Amino acid sequence: MEKVLSQFGIKSRPVGPVNALLPINVDEAKPDSLNVTITLDDAAQRKGSIVGPDGKPLSGVLAAGLKSGPLSPLASSEFTVSGMNAGSHRLLLFMHEEKKLGAVHSISGDGTEPIKVELQPLGSIAGVVHTMEKKPWAGLTVTVLPWVPGAARYDNLPHEVFRYQGGAMGLISAPWWKLTKRVVKTDTDGRFRLDGLVPGLEYTIYITDGDMTKQNTAVVLRARIEVSPGRTRDLGILESERK
Description:
- The chain contains 2 helices and 16 strands.
- By secondary structure, the chain is mostly beta strands.
- The protein folds into 2 domains: about 45-120, Immunoglobulin-like; about 125-240, Carboxypeptidase-like, regulatory domain (Immunoglobulin-like, Sandwich), CATH 2.60.40.1120.
- It has a 4-stranded antiparallel sheet with strand order 2-4-5-7, with no helix packed on it. A 4-stranded antiparallel sheet has the order 12-9-14-15, with no helix packed on it. Strands 3-1-6 form a 3-stranded mixed sheet, with no helix packed on it.
């Protein structure tokens, strides 16, 4: 796609997934060019199923990445991924909020075998925030955002708005923050706990004294944090990095 758009000097880019581009050269002096027939081939499909940690089929799961539009729980444990080509790479995210289970699964368009996704217990991150004077800091905002290594290779990740400490607002490919973003406050002892984190993603924690998008609110930042299924990742004491 990038090669074709650049070749014709087209600077704008599609805002959603694109499977193919077809250049059309219309010339009123050439009547044959005014009628164009476009033939669509059947897109590759992948069938899949979802099971819980016990190996039994699980319904009522939210599945992000299967298609665009609003998310709704799947009626059964079966699903279909369509609209792919041989070069497609997609990331699928599954969550069962009631049972506190989740998983991420990467697929490619050149595969043919059925997809089996096993949901795992969600993980947590905990810690304590201290001032530079080593005193507990209450009332801070703790925001955790998940990231995907090599996000550019996936053609179905949504574009999320990101802004930090007054910097320029940017659109980045990220794993469905409406489902995966978590925000809490530190308690009177400076403690915090972030639950409902999907294993398989990398998390960054932004601890701020107020809105993380505003300047001079940053207190602590920790990146590339992973969580294990059903376990709490304890970060220990995090001392303020503000000078």
